[in-house]
Amino acid sequence: MTRVMVPDDANVFGALFDGTLPQERIFLETSDGRVVRQGDVPEATARLAALLAAQGVGKGRLVGAILEKSPEAILLYLAVCRLGAVYLPIHIGLTDAEIAHIIRDAEPRLVVCDPARSAAVEAAGAARILTLAASGSGSLTAQSRELPGLTALAPVSPDEPNAMVYTSGTTGRPKGALLSAGAVIWNARSLAACWEITPDDVLLHANPMAYGLFGTTTPAMAGGAAMILLPKFDTDAVIATLPRATIFAGVPTYYSRLMADPRFDRALCSRMRLFVTGSAPMRADAFEAFAERSGHRLLDRYGLTEALIATSNRVRDWRGCDSSGPPLPGSALRIVDGEGHEVPAGTVGMIELRQPHPFLGYWRDAAKTQAAFRDGWFVTGDFGRVDAEGFVSVLGRGADLIITGGLNVYPKEVEVELNALPGVAESAVIGVPHPDFGEAVMAVVQLADPAEAFDEAGAVAALRATLSGYKVPKRVVALAELPRNTLGKIQKNLLRQRFLGAFDSATGP
């Protein structure tokens, strides 16, 4: 297999810059026909690095990126790596206020943004701004085109920062997590090995630019795979391009949309080697239906901002919908109780991680960083369990745990039963204040057919046959759409706010 990464005491993606890879091999291509070959990467990134350096970007400096997906956007990240600077991805779909919070908090030396977001970036007080459109046009490419390339690579040690990624903000205001060069390299290499990525692979890349870099793009680089970039997920575009690909990665929403199209079948997937899912849970029936339709069992993995991808099934593992695989090689995972004591296999508790390159901490928040670790283990804030073989099942965020009448309810256990009810497309179980129980279990469902009437009493009665009484929701409400963030995760914090007073007048059960 072509070696793309370099030793941990050198620059992050050095082999992409030194011309040792086959020059004519495709590195990136777009659905509209633009192609970047391996031989183009050294010169293109050297010119971009020269422009960044002229803007005052150097080792350790932050470079914000608010961009649509494009070859130039990925080359920009590699140019940041050349300089030993720190990449700050910001999702282009955030509101002006959310963008302003990140820019004012991080104070990047330079922000490269889509022209449509330049006014918001300027209003947020960014010191320096360059533009880059999805087409590749903009001041970034215009100003770098004629520059002599900055060919020297800044040496980067494993414990120096490579990126700062802001948390998705499903439970509170986003905070910046600093990721080391060692963590980025180790994670990419480990995933390339788990997923058996080689130069013969072609990744069909439909994930957002800001959230699809680590865990999608970097493992492809580590394995030497080519990439086809789609601007975003679009069912028609994926179906048209899938016959040219061998790997596809996406959230469960992508797969449900593919399954809704009769063109998606085994013949379409005949060249495919691997479908990867994650970022949100998937219904068991949908998981099995996908395997029957496509001939492929989805490969699930578990990740979080601070740890990148922490666990993953491997290609040769038998894969079920309830397992996110074992910890990546070189790392460890444990399940602990409220006092931090490890619990037996199969017992639900808090997930903690120990990785060879732990995240460097939260931006300008030493207290929060210290609180995130316990005896060298990173406290994820997620609940789950581990089976006897070391495979992890994630049950949800600790903030989602419901304590009703002194008893613990893990939302996923209830959501599995709700999702099995006829007519329910997806569900979210939350805890809301209750005058007698402290918290009450409440469920919000999205129906497969919004025009259908929903029988709340019938749903509750059905759940009583499969769940202990204290786990049965006291209310089940149907919404046309569940609120989601840009990764497709249901925003339970918004649901809790919406239904905060649902039981204000309640007495008794």
SSE layout and pairing:
Layout: E1 26-30, E2 35-37, H1 41-54, E3 62-66, H2 71-83, E4 86-89, H3 96-106, E5 110-113, H4 118-123, E6 129-131, H5 139-144, E7 161-166, E8 176-180, H6 181-194, E9 202-205, H7 213-223, E10 226-229, H8 235-241, E11 247-250, H9 252-259, E12 274-277, H10 284-294, E13 299-304, E14 308-312, E15 332-336, E16 349-354, E17 361-362, H11 366-371, E18 373-374, E19 377-386, E20 392-397, E21 402-404, E22 407-409, H12 411-419, E23 424-434, E24 438-447, H13 456-464, E25 475-479, H14 492-498
Parallel strand pairs: 1-10, 3-4, 3-5, 5-6, 9-10, 9-11, 11-12, 12-13, 24-25
Antiparallel strand pairs: 1-2, 7-8, 8-17, 13-14, 15-16, 16-19, 18-19, 19-20, 21-22, 23-24
Keywords:
single chain; 509 residues; alpha/beta; Rossmann fold; GMP Synthetase, Chain A, domain 3; 5-stranded antiparallel β-sheet; 14 helices; 25% strand; disordered N terminus
